[in-house]
Specification:
Elements lengths: L7 H4 L7 H12 L5 E2 L11 H11 L14 H15 L9 E4 L2 H12 L5 E6 L5 H8 L2 E6 L15 H6 E7 L11 H14 L2 E5 L21 H4 E6 H4 L8 E5 L1 H14 L5 H12 L3 H23 L12 E5 L6 H12 L1 E2 L1 E2 L10 E5 L4 H12 L2 H6 L1
Parallel strand pairs: 1-10, 3-4, 3-5, 5-6, 6-7
Antiparallel strand pairs: 2-8, 7-8, 9-12, 11-12
């Protein structure tokens, strides 16, 4: 069969770092090994029943069998505005300041193409969500990495950025609660960010995927809660994590009117719109009972405590995440993140994500998902305790 070569654009896209790891895990499972998979970010709980029921009800309505409005139903945009007012005290104009997305990832990949020209500069956190790089590559833009360091609480230090890079930058990605580090942002940090963005005409894109997941009684901040935030940026939210709707592919962007307009124009050319029944279910999720969100947050906190307390009991000095459903663990001295991840998989049959897969400053860490039961997490700790290299170090 004749082979047609892919375009230069496709060849320029970043390679999927985790593909080989997932393949290796599959090989272990196919050989009958019980692999505890803590390396991926796929929520393990079902979508709440009342949301599923709304989808089932809406799916039989013939109106939803037609094309939905290109830019989404007005009732879903109103639900988004109601959600932000209820949860964060932020007033959103549903007609101008909300764009419906095919999942948060779609928005994050679209944004660089909406706002950047080839050669333009974007500021990107390191370590960070790998798919940020995909949108930058598609826009043919240039990245300046912002290191996230433990001694800075995994917040970028803007004083370390080159003034020339700041003058050239048009967009900045941020993400708190953070993937992969589990760090959270402060009011002071967001205030500093808004001033920087205003001074240098930078659009802030805050990835708020884990906005509902905060621990120790602390609710994560929305970027838009800070005065002036809407003037300089947007926030991207997904229902994937808050309501266990990862497979439903629905999210939204809120904030600066000009950026929302650009996203909707881009999507007008890419899509028609989300299935109407999914939009009805999303509106139900945002405006319906929220007990499920509280219960989910409590579940992740219990899991975090089982994992962190267990590892600390072994002598491993690890930090507890303040938000998200990930723990960011410093690997034992003498090992790279990939070497340590391979040891855990080969000898303990535990899959974790090597930090280097999230950027240069991810080296020295592994990311562990809190997406298995407390029993499985406790079993992972027990397996780690039996590793010879671990006994030697601790």
């Amino acid at each position: 069969m004749k082979q047609f070569p892919p375009s230069e654009l496709l060849n320029s896209l970043p390679k999927q770092f985790f593909a080989s790891l997932v393949k290796k895990v599959g090989e272990y499972i196919s050989q009958g090994y019980d692999v505890i998979n803590l390396g991926q970010g796929n929520p393990d709980q079902p979508t709440p029943a009342h949301i599923v029921a709304k989808l089932q009800e809406a799916a039989v309505n013939p109106i939803n069998h037609k094309y939905s409005p290109f830019q989404g139903h007005s009732y879903l945009k109103k639900a988004v505005a109601d959600y932000y007012l209820r949860e964060y005290g932020v007033t959103i104009d549903p007609t101008k300041e909300v764009a419906i997305l095919f999942g948060g990832k779609a928005g994050l990949v679209e944004i660089p193409q909406c706002l950047l020209n080839p050669g333009d500069t974007i500021l990107v956190p390191d370590p960070g969500y790998p798919d940020y790089l995909s949108g930058v590559a598609l826009a043919k833009a240039e990245m300046v990495m912002m290191p996230l360091k433990e001694d800075k609480n995994f917040l970028p230090d803007y004083t370390e950025l080159n003034e020339k890079d700041l003058e050239k930058a048009k967009v900045m990605f941020l993400n708190y609660p953070n993937n992969p580090t589990g760090a959270v942002a402060t009011c002071e940090f967001f205030e500093e960010t808004i001033k920087l963005a205003s001074d240098h005409d930078i659009c802030i894109v805050h990835d708020f995927a884990y906005g509902a997941i905060g621990f120790d009684g602390q609710k994560p901040l929305s970027f838009l809660q800070l005065e002036g935030a809407k003037e300089v940026g947007i926030e991207i939210y997904t229902l994937s994590k808050t309501y266990n709707m990862a497979g439903w592919r629905v999210g939204f962007a809120v904030g600066n009117e000009s950026v929302i307009s650009a996203i909707e124009l881009m999507q007008d050319h890419l899509y028609v719109s989300l299935f109407g029944a999914v939009q009805e279910a999303a509106a139900e999720a945002l405006t319906g009972p929220q007990d499920c969100v509280k219960e989910l947050n409590e579940l992740y906190e219990r899991r975090r405590n089982v994992l962190i307390d267990g590892l600390r009991s072994l002598g491993w000095n690890v930090n507890a995440p303040n938000g998200s459903f990930f723990a960011w663990l410093k690997v034992p001295k003498g090992y790279s993140s990939s070497e340590f991840a391979n040891i855990l998989l080969d000898q303990a049959h535990i899959m974790v994500a090597p930090g280097i897969g999230f950027g240069e400053f991810g080296e020295g860490y592994v990311r562990v998902g809190l997406l298995s039961s407390e029993e499985r997490l406790a079993k992972a700790v027990e397996r780690i305790s039996r590793l010879e290299i671990f006994k030697k170090i601790y």
